[in-house]
Structure formats: structure tokens, C-alpha cells
Amino acid sequence: MKRLAAYMLSAVLLASCVNVPKDAGFSELAELTAPMLSAPAEWVGETISEQSANDRISALLSSPLTEASVAEITVLANKDLRATLYGLKAARGDYVDDASLPNPFITALFIDSPGESEEDCFGNLTKTDIPIGGSIGIGYEILDLLFFPRTLKAAKAEFNAAKYGSVRQFADYAYKARLAFYQAMAAKQMVGLAEQSYKATEASAYSAQALYDAGNIPMLNVNREKLFAAQMEAQLIQAKRHQKMAERRLAQAMGLHPEKAGSIKLEGRLRTPDRNELDPLPIQGVMDRNLELKHRGALIQAAGARMGLSDVMSFVGDVEGEFEVERHDGKYEYEAGIGFELPIFNFGQGKREANRARMEMMAQRYEAAMYSLNATSRILYDELSAARENVLLQRKKVLPLSNKVLQGMQLDYNAMQIGVFDLLAAKREQLAIGIAYIESVEDYWRTRAAYEYLLAGGSPEIAMTSAASMSAGQSASEGDH
Amino acid sequence: MPSRRDTLKIAGLTAGAVALGGASRTGAHKGEHLHSESVPHKGHSYAPGQPGVDYKPVVTPDGSTLPFKVVGGVKVFHLTAEEVEHEFAPGLKAFCWGYNGQVHGPTIECVEGDKVRIYVTNKLVAPTTIHWHGVILNSGMDGVGGLNQRAIKPGETFVYEWTFVQHGTFMYHSHHDEMTQMAMGLMGMIVVHPRKRTEPMPDREFAMMLGTWAIRPGAKRPDPNVMSDFNVLTINAKTYPGTSPLVARTGQRVRFRIGNLSAMDHHPFHLHGYAFEEVMTDGGVIPKSARRPETTVLVPTGTTRTVELVAHNPGDWAMHCHMTHHVMTQMGHDIPNMVGVDPKDLDGQMASLLPHYMTMGHDGMGEMGIHVESGHMKVPENSLPMVGAQGPHDYITMGGMFTIFKVRDGITSFEDPGWYDDPLGMARPATEAELSRDGINPDTMHMPVNSHGSGTSYGSGHSGHSGPSGRGEWHKGGHDGH
């Protein structure tokens, strides 16, 4: 009895010592999201007012977007991210709930009997008064108490899991917005080149018309050039469509209201990667930082903590302790008891086996996720190295050579070795090489975004999905050429 | 009295002679040979001919004559086939194949009856031979690889030996992998003077080899694979303005010995300011009775033609192939025809795409060379503008197979005398007074064509009648068809 009381006391003390973050873990979230955001994480309505957030968004939108401003707008504007933060708040509530000792249950009994009639020796009924009485009992789920430290541990782990989930949401949104930014930039550059290509074919058609007007070629040749120009015009329309779509997707990824999609400003070009070699893949750091692993780890911890209680309950069910004070006949009587299931038929072995299997399943999935992360990291690292090598090669060799070829064609034109149509065809080839270059730069930045997203703790599945879609897009565009 | 068989023989020979256009002079009627002998050779031998004594040496413009030495009464020559970096004209050089460090090879000059021994050293990367084109010799010396001899391997020296039993203008060239080796330049001229002259000795003789090359602008080696689109047309492997002028003194008898070893082209070679006589082919001397005055001689590929004139007309006279694409240099032939195209809007359209673009050819090709020479229109390195060079009065819009025959009074040096200043005057803008005097109105002048398509009289529309002003009336230019 004394031991039980001591245990209860320590549980009470433990409960009172639990430190549940008042900001629902937001500060820690901000710390964890720092590597993946170039702007501090904000919680609109909590750390920054709605008005201030809107003003900041407007200010950022008034200038051409950058990777940093895209991330900041995403943090401030994305309603889904806000929802995530409220989800974190809810998780905190759950944590607070779990971190409190379960309440005992009280039973009170009041006795006010009309008395009993008693027949005396004369046959007369005599009413015997029974004094008012009652009983008070207090009951407690003993197992809840006994396993409170483990419950506490589980609650903390579950809260952490929710927190890592929220951080991952930030990472996901920031990553998707970054990808959308690169797509929009590339699409804008593509339009520029498509416009030039169209101009080149238009000039070709114009030349053909001029030659026809001079009586030098038949109308068939003119129509061929015009047809080509019309095809290029159609490609320009497509390019503009892609640009518009890419800008809308960017607005959507940042969480902007659709009406604000038109206010997006994009300028300049996608940068060429610097010439510094890539740092070696920090594989251990990737594993340590990965939010999915952390999330899974926290869930395993929670499950493990809850498993002890579950095991016992599977055997004896609820164990209920009860203490009761009863006044009877003016006397106090004390009663204490304990109740539990009698494990005659069900010894709980099925439940325990299921618990262990579930734990093992989670552990195996954790390991599978580790392998997946490890493999994905290496794939993306290799992809990034190749994409970087490709874009640098294009920059260093292909573009200058294509310029030299065009210059040579211009000299050939001057030397009357080729005509205006050949010269314009050479210009179009140069523009096609320019388009391939932009594709390679976009490929590089998207791969780099995927890689950095993974380094910062992102999901390998999401990173790989976008990498795969990139490859598919690349193949499709290569096929077009 | 001739027999029936003899009659048939003579008839056959006569028919053959007719079929040959009556070209035979010496020997044909004897049924022996058609080549030209000035002295008998069978059973005779002659001392080696001496330059300055037996003949006046030919001039090979931009080339040279192969030196010889006499060893035991034999003229000994040595040709070395090798790769040579050759300049076609300032601005265009290429790695060609030639002999003795030059392209084409030096002219071999002999006298009929000379016994010659010619050593040929092969310093090329490929086997080669030399064929002595048009020369009458024994089959084993004819130089056709595989047929008459085995090829001369790189590093080997072969010797050819024969006696010239004819005089005339001949050529030599590789006869091994001809397509490649001749396209690379392995050829030269042979001039054999008559041992005994029956006609006046010319005062000036020029040996000229016509050739065609394919050198892509910017490239540095002729392309033997090209079959028809040759773009460097040469006289002695020089293209204008790289060709040196041919200089003669007024009154000199001048002979042009012209050979053609172009891969695929004949050349109607035209001289301005003169009529000349075709006196010889590589087959032999043309009988005087068969000669006729001409201003253009067609030199088919694989032949020589020798023409002669007396330089009576001083001046600067263009001499060129009359195939107009043969007086262009390095022109592409698949370019669109821009003549008549209005360039203004087109240039505007192109400006943003190609800042260095300029519409060309809308008024012809004449100005192309001027644009290039002025430096504002660059062409590929190691290439020439399509046409010409600056002349004394304007830009000469001819290039390629073009040179100038310069005839001057009383000169003693045959170095380039510079441009001719014609004391009789030259074409110039017409004055208003002249136009008025002759009733010419440049703004309304048209020459209508009658319903039969021939030129007809024109009553001058505005002032066609001969009046007191003396302005004449146009007369019918031809028969009106009735």
C-alpha cells in the first residue's frame, strides 16, 4: 500500500514537471525549417499579423521574384501551411492531455431509507428508523497510473512526430514553390527564344515573298516558308501557354490567391551553376536530418512506449483499484478492493503478438525508409553531378561553338556560299541550341532543388517523383527535337 | 593505174580525213602519223636544242621553266612530286600537290629531236606516275599507272626516257588516282619547239595551263571529291587578281600556248582587242589553209590550243574564259537569286536576329568584292571575294580565270608596266550637250519591239523627226518579216 502511494506520488510529481511547449513547438519548427527556407518561418496570426503578412507579400510581389522571395511568400501566403501549424497546435493539445495524470473516479452513495416495520410480540407493527447514511468511494485505473511515465513518453514522441510532420510540410511546400519558380523562369526564357525563332521564320517567309515579288521563285517556295513560319508561330503560342501555366503554378505553389497570379514578375535568366565542384555527398548528415526518419522514429518510440500498457491490458484488461468509506449505523467502514479480468480464456497472447508484429513492421519500414533515403540521396547526387556537368559543358563548349557556327555561316553568307534561307536556318539552329541549354539549366536547378530538399530533410519519394517527372519531360522535349 | 583495192584505201583515208575535219597536215596523207615533224627522225639524231639559239624560251606566267643539264647528249630533267603550300591569290593559300615546290609543275621546254631523260621522285604520301600528255613515245614510257608501269611509291625515283619526234604544246600530269592527284595540282606544260622553222619565230610565247579547283572558303586543301561545283578557276594555278599580266611590245608576234587539264570543264578563252589565229593543237600544227581568225578559242579539257597574233593594238586587254561562272571565285551556286529584291525592309527584318546581315545580290554580284575589300563585310579566313580587284577606273568585277594582256609601245622590260592610259580617250558620262545634239532623252528612251519580235524604228516619241536641229530619226534595225 505504501509502495503504491509512493508510486502515485512520483507520478503526480512527474505530471507536474512535464514541459509542453507553449508555442506548440513553433520555435523548434522554425529552427528546423531554417536550412530549407531562406526566410524565417512565420505563423500568420501568431508570430506575425495578417496585415503585416499581406503587406510583406505585396512588397515582395512588387519586385521580380527570386528563390528567396518565393520561399518567403510561400511561408506567408500558403493557407495549407497555416493549417499545418494549427495541426501542430492540436498535437500540442493532445500532448498536454496525455501529459496529465488520469483523473480518479468517485462514487458517492447516500442512504435515506423509510425504515423497516417490525412486528412486536403483540402483533403491532413498529417502524424502526434507520439513520441517514452513505458511502464515498474513489476508484482509479491502476494501470494508467503504473504506466504513466510510459504514456508521457509516448505522448512526447507523438507530439514530436506531429512536429516533424509539420516541418516536412514546410519543406515540401518550399521545395514545390522553388521548382515552380525554376519552371516559370525557364518557360519565360523559352518564350524569348521561341519569339526569336518565329522572327527568324517570319523573316524567311518575308524574304521568300520578296523573292517571289521580284519574280525569282515560285509561290510554292513562298508557301513553304510561310507554312514553316506558321508552325513556329504555333510553337510560340505553345511556349506562351506554358509560360502562363508555369506562372499560375508558381502562384499556386506559393499559395497566392489566383487573382494575384498576374502580379508575378520574373526577370533575368536562370543562373549557370558556379564552377566549384560539388561537395561530397554528406550521407550521414542526410540520414540524421531526414524528417521522415525522424517522424517514423518518433512514431516507433510512441508505439513502443504504449506497448507495455497494451501488453498488460491484453492479459488482465483494466485493473481498477477502489477505496470506499461507508458510514453505517453511525459507524464508518472502510473498504478497499481491486478488480480485473480473470484471464481464463483469453490470455492476451494474440494482442501481444499483434503488438510485436506491428512494432517489427514499423522498425522494418524505418529501415526501408533509411535505405530508400540513402539510395535516393546517391541517385540525386549523381543526377546533380551529371546535370551540372551537362550545363557547364553546354555553357563552355556548345553555346560558344554554336555562336561560332553562326558567325561562320554569316561569313559564308558574306562570301556568297549560302543564301539568306540557309543563314536563317543557321540562326534557328542556334536558337534550338539555346533552348536545349535552357532545358539543361532548368534540369540542373530542379535537380539541385530536389537534392537540397533531400539534404534539408525532405522526402525521398517526393524528391524522386519530381526528378522522374523531370527526366520524363526531358525525354519528351528531346523527342520533339 | 590504181587498183580497185587502192581506190578503196584512198577513199577510206579520205573519209577519215573528212571525219577529222581535215585537220591532218603532215603525214596523214602518207598514212603514217598526224603529229608535226619539222625534220625527219627515223635514223637521225640531233644535238640538244639550245635556248636562245634554237628557240626563244617561253614565259610561264607565275610559273617557271624546268632546268636541265646535258649528260652524254641527253637532256636530263628532275621532277619531284611533293606537297606544296600554294598561294592562288593574296588571301587564299592551300596545301596542294605540285612538282619541284611549285603548283603547277614547271614547264618542260625542249626542241624537237631532243633526247630527254626525266627522273621523277615521289615525295608524296601516295604512289604516283607521270603521263606525258600528247607526246609521241614508246608505250612503256607513257606513264599510265598499272597499264604502262607500276606506280612510283613514296620515296622512289623512276626514270623516263625518250626522244621528242614532234613539236608542239603538250602537258604532263599524274596518271595514278587521277581524280585525286590532278585535282590536287599534279600537272604542268611541255613546250617542244620545231627543230626547223617554217613559220616566223614568235617574239613572246606564253605557256598557260587552265585549271579548276574546289576549295571551300576557309579550308586549306583542294577537295578532289567535288565533281562539278569548282570555285577556284586558274591560269597557271593563279586566280585573278593573283594572275600576272602578259606583257608584250607593240608589233611583237605573240603566241599563247594554252592547255586545259580541268577536271570537268572546257574553257572558251577570249581575248579582247584582237583577232588571233589558232595555229596548233596538241595533235599538231593546223594547216594554214584551215586556220581562221577568231577572238575566242575553245580549249576542251585534255587538250592544248596554240593561238598567235601580232600585238598591233596597245592597251590593257582582258583575257579570260568566257564562261561567266569561270570568272568568279569561290561563289556558292545554290544561293537564291536576289536580283530585283527590295533589300530595305528585309534588312530591317533581319537586324534584330543577325546584326551583321546585309542583303546582297539584289543588284547583282558586282559590289561584293568592294564590300569585302572595304573591310565592312568579312568573309571566311583564307578565302577570296567572288569577284575582282580594284582597277584604274573602278572595281574590276571579274575574278577567277582572268588575266590582262598588256601591250605597250617601245617597252624593253616585260615587267608589269602598270595601267594603260589610253591617249585616244575612254568611255565617260555623256554631257547634256551631247545628249541634246543626238536627241537622246535617257528618261523616255525605249526601244519597242514589233509584233514579229525584231527591233523596229522608233520615231523618237517626243522629237523623232529630223528637223533643222539635225537630230536623227531611228531607222529599222532589221527585216520586219514581210
Short précis:
The complex is a heterodimer of chains A (481) and B (482). With 481 residues, chain A is an alpha+beta fold.
Structure description:
The complex is a heterodimer of chains A (481) and B (482). With 481 residues, chain A is of the alpha+beta class. Helix content of chain A is 69%, strand content 9%. Chain A has helices at residues 2-17, 26-33, 50-61, 67-77, 79-98, 142-146, 148-213, 219-254, 283-289, 291-316, 349-414, 420-455, 460-480, and strands spanning 105-111, 116-119, 125-128, 133-141, 320-328, 331-339. Chain A is elongated. Chain A starts with a helix and ends with a helix. The relative contact order of chain A is 0.11. Residues 473-481 of chain A have low confidence and may be disordered. With 482 residues, chain B is mostly beta strands. Among the domains of chain B are: 69-325, Immunoglobulin-like (Sandwich), CATH 2.60.40; 429-482, no CATH class. Chain B is 9% helix and 28% strand. Chain B contains 5 helices and 23 strands. In chain B, strands 10, 11, 13, 15, 16, 17 and 19 form a 7-stranded mixed sheet that branches. In chain B, strands 1, 2, 3, 5 and 7 form a 5-stranded mixed sheet that branches. In chain B, strand 15 (276-281) and strand 16 (284-285) form a beta hairpin. The longest helix of chain B is centred in the first third of the chain and has 16 residues, at 4-19. Chain B is globular, with a radius of gyration of 27 Å. Chain B starts with a helix and ends in a 45-residue tail after the last helix.
